[in-house]
Design goal:
By secondary structure, the chain is mostly beta strands. 5% of the residues lie in helices and 36% in strands. It is built from 1 helix and 12 strands, in the order E-E-E-E-E-H-E-E-E-E-E-E-E. It has a 7-stranded mixed sheet. Strands 3-4-7 form a 3-stranded antiparallel sheet, with no helix packed on it. The protein has a two-stranded antiparallel sheet with strand order 1-2. It is globular. The N terminus is likely disordered.
Length: 148
Amino acid sequence: MNATPAADSQGVETAGERTGGCLCGRIRFITRGPAVFPHTCSCPHCQKLGGGPMMWWAGFAPDDVIWTGQGREPTWFETFEGEAKRGFCPRCGTRLAAIDSDVPELGINVTALDDTSDHDLIPVNQSFRSNAVHWLSQVPDAQNSPIG
């Protein structure tokens, strides 16, 4: 995997990094390294949170996500007490990230990335496919995930 080069603080591009952020630009971030388990999720929670039939997630090691910009880290909302948090921009509402107690990676909402074209971001599974809308083709299960 070769991620889209990202610019460092001096504007120099660095291979293996990606940039992203919220709609208003208050919160920006850099991810390093390959995406882990890119997938879509059609659970009722993600449908309401994302305002659509699914959300698109990819994991990154927590130490490989650096929050930048004036807002720094997102505001965290504990969606399931002691189990899950979702990060968003308090100014524009963009959904940016997820922390789940049973997942070692930090989930990044792929649509918050500036460039979503890298092959390691192609979903390998669709979680909660039984809750998916019937008129949209499901993501093929390329990884035989026990989730969904």
